Amino acid sequence: MQTNIIGLNIGGKVFLTSESTLMSTPNYFSHVLQSQIPHAKDIDGNYFIDRNWRYFEPILDFLRSGEWSHPSNLDETILRRESEFYQVLLPFEVNGGSLLIC
Q: Pick from 90, 19, 30: which is nearest to 56 by CA?
């Protein structure tokens, strides 16, 4: 089975991932790949998104594994904002419980 590799240039850092990872749930990337959202590409043909790559990295890890671990070195408010931009639901701990955000 052939897997399509997708290049994402997020704020100047290139991430490579599979199309199936990006299409695993409806999100920003699934809409981009279905040509529902206009997008730019860099000179190497990677999808270019002018956002902070440090906050994208844990979101991509979540899409890959389905497991969430909130990086302690990242601001939760900004991480929530980035997850909203990418339209990815992330589980956040709130008062000992779990809160799903989009």
A: 90
